[in-house]
Amino acid sequence: MAYNFIDAVSKTPFSGAVRKVWYGGAFLLALLLAASAVVHSMSGGAREALAKEKTVQETLVLQSDQLTRQQAQFEFGKLLRQQTRTANVLMADQLFDLLDLVPDDATLERFEFNETSVIFAGVCRRFDAMRTDMSRALSGQYRIAETTQTAQKGQTRFMLRFTANGEMP
Amino acid sequence: MALSDFFARFYNKVFIGLYAQRDLLRVGVVTLSSQGEVGIEHRAFASGLGEEVMSFLQEKVALSPYNYIAVVTDSGRCGALPTCSLSKAKELDPAVGRSKTVCVDEEWMNYCEEEVLVAIQERYASLSPDAVYSPFALLHAFFEAPMAGNHAVYLLLTPEAMSLAVVKERHLRFAEQFRFTTGALVPMMVEQITGTLETYYGKPCCRGEFVESVHIVDGAGTGALLAKALEEVLLIETELLEVDTALLCAQTCMKENGYGL
Q1: What are the residue ranges spanned by the domains of chain B?
Q2: Assuming Cys at both sites, which of A119, A145, B12, B206 could form a disulfide with A112, CB separation 3.0 to 4.6 Å?
Q3: pTM of structure
Q4: How much is the ipTM here?
Q5: 242-261 of B, contacting A, C-beta below 8 A
Q6: Quick check: helix, strand or coil at residue B105?
Q7: What pLDDT is attached to residue B1?
Q8: Which CATH class is domain B3-72?
Q9: Phi/psi at B178 (nearest 5 deg)?
């Protein structure tokens, strides 16, 4: 209900001394907010830096582990290759020795060699002498397990199978 | 909601009413706490707007930023008319043309000549008054509820004037402001009231409709005698309420600002 003849001034708490109190309060609040923002920002930066450093360290550790594993794999591979080479050399020597047993007048058509047996097959003029020589030469490691021979035009077609000593014939 | 309205909830409100009676200044203060508690205080200062009253007012104003200073004038150059049409009001009283007007209830016009208002604002310039009321504003604010009822006369007595309003079912029928240059004498007041009512009864609008009661707010101290005299003359029920005019002014300000009466 309006009764007033003059223009009324709108009342507000933001006047005089009260205004100072409100403004002071608002200023303090703004200051606190700003300080809080700065602290938050700084702590955020520190947290970020720490997280970054941690990530870098973890990456370095991971890379170091990977490197160690790769090195170990490389060493192992190298060892394996050396062993294989040694084995191959040994085997080549053995094969050479075995094939050296075949006389010059024989023609070797088949040769099988593994850790338990050695098979020679072919044609030869003097089979009996070759068998005796080979049996003697291999007697330390092998013994004759099977012999087949067929006379053919002055030659003998043969098959000699040696088994390693201790193996079933 | 405006920001100031929001902040207003947390503050006490102070309503100060001023009524000048020759060299005497009456001050009424109503304080409304943020919890809704109401306190009233009224004092009279003989020195007018002297140091004492200024000190008192400054003390009250300092209680809250939500302080309101209202002045009531019982000048004979203020009044009320039963219309809100400016042209019709000017026909009823040419003084409306040089007055500020306030429409109440869409058919009740309070007016006061601008010269009077300017003089009041100059007189109280140091206090920067927030409101200036006519006695009819006080009458309406105080009797708003009863005015919705039967056909009745409402009187506000101040030491130097008498404001009369005839209201039926919230409709203002007639209003008159009387000034007393030598102080209010009851027989003179009774004579003016009866004369006014005879004029009122003679109007085409109101012929055959008699008032049923008289309600008096007495800020002058003569209300009891007047009530008794009116009962004898008019033979109708009279209600009397004694008030301090300045305090009633403060309460009107409180009501105008939405805090009840």
Answers
A1: 3-72, 111-249
A2: A119
A3: 0.65
A4: 0.90
A5: 252, 255-256
A6: coil
A7: 58
A8: alpha beta
A9: -115, 140
